[in-house]
């Protein structure tokens, strides 16, 4: 009986290690060009001369750093399936276009950094679904237009940084629903 228990435990450990290895291997393509920490929960792709966001991104990632690259656009559902992602840093790129639905599925994201890019307008509902977002940093872009409803649904947002842009007009409804906003 004792031999069967030990054999079962050994088999279970072997199976779990195999699953962990396969999951890490499946998600490790990004780790060939970026630096991955803590079994890919933190991925640093900063300063890699990237022109697009590398794929696939490990589904267990919590922190993703993509600053100091040449990324010019964020496509629809680019981060789909990254339910654990809490912090996304995309500063100092050439981002001019953010497609509607680009941040779909990032239900746990609480920090989004998009400063020092070439964003000229914030479209309606571009941040849709980011219910846990607390800090949104959009400074030092070329933002001239923010469409009504751009911040709709960001009920947990407490920090919104828009300095060093070209905003000339702010609609009174622009910040409607941002009940937790403390710093603008």
Automatic annotation (TrEMBL):
PROSITE patterns: LRR
Keyword hit for Nucleotide-binding: no
Leader sequence segment: 1-28
Pfam families: LRR_1, LRR_8
Keyword terms of this UniProt record: Leucine-rich repeat, Repeat, Signal
Protein name according to UniProt: SLIT and NTRK-like protein 4 isoform X2
Organism: Octopus sinensis
Species lineage: Eukaryota, Metazoa, Spiralia, Lophotrochozoa, Mollusca
Gene that produces this protein: LOC115227548
